[in-house]
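A sample copied in:

***
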Amino acid sequence: MRRSFTFWMLMVFTCLSFCQSKFTEAPRKVPLPPANNRDAHVREMFANSQVRAVRIDLEAGESTATAQHDRDFVIVSIGDSDFEFIGPVNSVPMSMHDSEVQVLKGHWPHRVHNKSQRALHLVEIEVARGIVPERAVCGLNAPSCRESRFAYNEHDRYTTGTLFETPTIKLAKVEIDPQSDMPEHGHPGDHVMIALTDASLTSTEVGGASKDFNGHPGDAMWLAGGMVHSLANHGAQKASFLTIDCK
């Protein structure tokens, strides 16, 4: 388990293992506040009543503007990173490996400063209902998660496992071999896909339409819930991505 830093207004949790999880109550629609689009280093990918997904790109030594961060959020590092969250009264140094995930509590205004000599790339998913990491079902500060699925046959070659689950979201990592499929599976709630590698995927709903996701590391896509779909990797390399299911 990587070291976590806890301050009076901020708790950081590190996700390192797969886990068992179950869905709970239906989501309550809570509108997010308007985004601050004045920061050239922060690009909003999408926002709705449940989540906001932004991409943070900083060259060596650069910083974002200070943002309020009223809600809990997930940070995903695209590439190895060495940076710092700087608030009005304290700061939190962060060192993350490529594809590592951290959960941070909200209600802590801060800016992001890149301490390394290379470019910093982060994906931030802010959750309207909060994440409540202190009440994790598994992962984070709870027992390790155990839910995982895999298949290696003529058509389906994939692995998936839950990294953590809380009362509001469940985060899993999925890998699909090149020119292979992940068979039909359900998502009761809406969910986010975050690419960790170059990905050329097609999501096909049972009895519905198909939707392509052609992305690079750090790209994200929003998918409506209440559906069963399959995923096909059309690329020449293994597709690795995270899914965040909203409850």
